[in-house]
User: What shape does this take?
Amino acid sequence: MAIRVMLVDDQMLLRTGFRMVLAAQPDMEVVAEAGDGIEAIENLRATAVDVVLMDVRMPRLDGVEATRRICAQPDAPKVLILTTFDLDEYAFSGLKAGASGFMLKDVPPGELLAAIRSVHSGDAVVAPSTTRRLLDRFSPMLPSGRAEPRHKDIAKLTEREREVMLLVAQGLSNGEIAARLVLSEATVKTHVGRILTKLALRDRVQVVVLAYETGLVRAGGGGGTG
Assistant: This one.
């Protein structure tokens, strides 16, 4: 079954370009388009969508608030934030709102297609190191670990899972974590899955966000003490 994609951007020319790229793929189909967040939410009531490509700066309702409302729904589609700049504060807000990652608007077609397939399969589409750079810049916007109510959720993790979470948040891939902890990559993947389940997180991006929120990782990439 083809991956059902909705394009959300107030620039019709940009949507046309993305639609042409996606239409050439046998495993993808653009099933809806919207020029702002309100239209996107309305379309989702009538159309089944797997992945939403979401612009952030739009009239009426911006992409961040639209993402928050979409991701709060049961069986919500995955959302990829589209941003003009690599370290855009809107991309940070989009991750906080529940997006599975972000990409640049001028992403090469091959990377765009790979990202859509990746997020559809349940993976995040930004390298943890990229997310970390974003969070390092905007970490002052985060609450301190002491004030964060989700800090207690970390107590659900085993010592090994907490160790793996710390390394995920520092930007290491499963392979790099396996080498660091002298484990198989399959074992690391299992630990990551359990972390997501215990903490009710969607993907690795949300692991990084929570690690910063709770103080497990500090700005600059170091581990927290609490």
